[in-house]
Amino acid sequence: MSDTLALVLRLLAVFVVFLVFPLVIGQTEHKVMAHMQGRLGPMYAGGFHGWAQLVADGVKFAQKEDVVPTGADRRIFQLAPAVALLPYLLVMIAIPIGPGNAVGQALDAGVFYVLAVMGVGVLGSLMAGWASANKFSLLGGLRTAAQLLAYELPMLLAAASVAMAAGTLALPGILDAFHWWWVPWQIIGGVVFFTAGLAELQRPPFDMPVADSEIIFGAYTEYTGLRFALFLLAEYAGIVVLSALTAVLFLGGWHGPFGAAGLGWLWTLVKTVALCFVVIWLRVTYPRLREDQLQKLAWTVLIPLALVQIALTGIVKVVIS
């Protein structure tokens, strides 16, 4: 098999995962929340265990009228959902799921690439808020900008700690250098990275930009139909990407017990799914933070913890060497 054909097949596999996994996580969220909160609809739609809930949601979005406000910047308004969604596809290309060639495209600066491209996805919310000609949408967009500024730094610092420990910025290289004793050593950075990622995705309890009780639905207030569905799909794609990155950087990715090298992809999948469940669990468990609480958590807790993790990594590296 030629290198070009192998690359095309890997990229095609990434695209299939990108289309399927966010929908699976969306359906899983329906089920988990239904069990935890006693919701009846998602458990009975279609009969057996509510299998048709996701189909019903898709039909609902497809039937809704596509409305663009009269005063909106039409081109930016229509482009925003794609800007919110596509960066996660580009990030998935660089995430290794197994040893060897089990990655869409290995990059030498993979850590910085995935963090930079994930930041671009947030711009979709900014564009939507600015272009909607709605004060509630604009306020949601401004909250998104403030949240991005606050949580991008601790996320980057936490990832830098792992790259520093491994001595490389390439994601496959980080996994090649991984040892199991890294898990307790890098646990602070892992918690910071995961928490900051949730805030960038605007997931509860960090959903101030879409606070429905205050600003209707933030930057997405004026969106209907399939354009609104694309924003929801971007959120679930972001959950998959964040969980996969956390598994790769802090939980060893394809490394697992029993020495089953051929099951590397399975260990990555198990860890990713477990973290996706945690994301859903947190949504059900914790109330929304106020804006001041959200900023205080970033600047007074997460950033100092990330700096502590980097200092600890430096000390351990010096002792080992």
Automatic annotation (TrEMBL):
One of its GO terms (molecular function) is oxidoreductase activity, acting on NAD(P)H, quinone or similar compound as acceptor. GO terms for biological process: aerobic respiration. It catalyses: a quinone + NADH + 5 H(+)(in) = a quinol + NAD(+) + 4 H(+)(out). InterPro entries: NADH_UbQ_OxRdtase_su1/FPO (IPR001694). One of its GO terms (cellular component) is plasma membrane. It is a multi-pass membrane protein. It comes from the Bacteria. Keywords: Cell membrane, Membrane, NAD, Quinone, Translocase, Transmembrane, Transmembrane helix, Ubiquinone. The keyword Transcription does not apply. Its EC number is 7.1.1.-. It is found in: Cell membrane; Membrane. It is an enzyme of class 7 (translocase). Pfam families: NADHdh. Belongs to the complex I subunit 1 family. HAMAP family: NDH1_NuoH. NDH-1 shuttles electrons from NADH, via FMN and iron-sulfur (Fe-S) centers, to quinones in the respiratory chain. The immediate electron acceptor for the enzyme in this species is believed to be ubiquinone. Couples the redox reaction to proton translocation (for every two electrons transferred, four hydrogen ions are translocated across the cytoplasmic membrane), and thus conserves the redox energy in a proton gradient. This subunit may bind ubiquinone. NDH-1 is composed of 14 different subunits. Subunits NuoA, H, J, K, L, M, N constitute the membrane sector of the complex. This is NADH-quinone oxidoreductase subunit H. The gene is nuoH.
